[in-house]
Amino acid sequence: MSAGRHRNRTNIHIASIAAAVGVLVVTAGGYFGYRQLAAPSCSGSLELSVAVAAELAPAVDSAATEWENSGAAVDGTCVEVSVTASEPVGVAATVAAKHGAILPGVGQVSGAAVLPDVWVPDSSAWLLRLKSGGASEFNPGNGASIARSPVVVGVPEPIASQLGWPEQEFTWSALVSKVNTDEPLKAGTVNPTQDAAGLSGLLALSAAAAAGEGGQAASVGALRALSTSSADRRQDLLAKFPTSADPTTMAGSLGAAALSEEDLLSYNARNPAVPLAALYPKPAATPLDYPYAVLPGVGSAKAAAARMLFDDVLTRASFKDRLASLSLRGPDGTWGAGFSAPEGAPSPAADGDSATGDLDLLAVERAVSSWSIATQSGRMLCVIDVSGSMREPVASANGMSRQQVTLDAAGRGLHLFDDSWQIGLWEFSTNLGNGRDYRRLVEIGPLSSKRSELEAALAQIQPTRGDTGLFDTVLAAYEAVQEDWDQGQVNSIVLFTDGKNDDDNGISQRQLVAELERIKDPERPVQVVLIGIGAGVSKAELESITKVTGGGSFITEDPTKIGDIFLNAIALRDTGS
Questions:
Q1: Do 181 and 131 share a structural domain?
Q2: What was the pLDDT predicted at 525?
Q3: N or C, which end of the chain is more exposed by having fewer CB within 10 Å?
């Protein structure tokens, strides 16, 4: 009876994957009587809710059912495991909302979502992003892998054969060149802010592009090439592959995409007209590693049950055979009975390939932020502090001044914006002419016509001997962006400063906040992003502004970090954070 209960429940869960975050509570009248016969030493019920990536959920569910039937118990209480097939992005959104984290591109939780006791997403990247996104109390227990699926590049077999598959060994650098040629291989991806395989492929491709000729230009080119055939959901991306081998269909269809090995095997199992070949480029992309994360606050009894489920059930040799039936590998990279590896797949090491490809937090943050900027347009006014203190040298930047480091970050960021962006540029200090603390350098306009003007203006910016006229400048910038507000864009201000407001002839903090409250319009929102550089910045002063306007404030005492802060800030501009 218990096994049947699990099968029915799993079907219901899979039907509700779009919700992605709910935990279904199930009762069965005859179940507890059965449990008393099977395990007379336990009584009552302790429910352990487990949210699992959809492709792995059937294996966890069947193993948990077998465990229950054998008399699973904690301190004499029967354990009932409720398994939910859940999209990782949905659970991540719920965890982020619960713990105050900000995840670019993930979106908001819909409805009253409930956290599970145990979460098994498809990648440790989700845990890393939550922690780095501000979930300071998020310390999931264990986190050890229970399955694995390498990230491959799926290519329609006729195209793969032209590239030398299956004999040819591939590199990410070679793929970058294929994507960036005049007659490019049409590549795509699932949105890497919402999909771990897409993120892994983007990390590998970006690293190869940055290390090769062209550097950032090659990276940006690859980003934009991927974005032209991107999708928010895996099934939507797979639908872009050719449905016929005729030349016209092949030419207009997707030619390559980063997928998990399981995705590719499942796709080919449906006997498509054009099967996909699996390319395994070197160096290997970070695989999906399915970490077993016990979430904080579950209580000692549930934590004990979660440990037992992991130690006594999900690490058994027999579990690897359950994984094999779902086209998944064991956590060491080897596979169980019945697994059918794609043609050309490298064999696991004889002693088990245990390397999972350590994730680099900074690389993940840069990839996510760069994707958000390169694939979304916006309308932005960039405002740069040119007060005297910006002359100060930065020890960690080979003697470059704060001004030079800031301009370098702004210039590198500018290369990520495509021509659909509208950008303007101001500088500010005190007494910059006409009784103003700011100077308009380039009016907001499309980069298609303003790019060279912006680059020239950035090159001419120099520190003054003035002070920091922050409050007057913020108000003037807000009014300017609001005046020509564009309904089709996210309208924002990004301001760099290294000090507090010290303009004795300007408005006060109270006056600024009051005026912003008066003129802000929910129908015409303007987000303000304030980036503070050095110890002289007042966090309270900056936050008093962004609490009114929306946006956010970011402060670093190390000016060399402002480039990454700038990318993160722009990537978050549409979340209302």
A1: no
A2: 93
A3: N
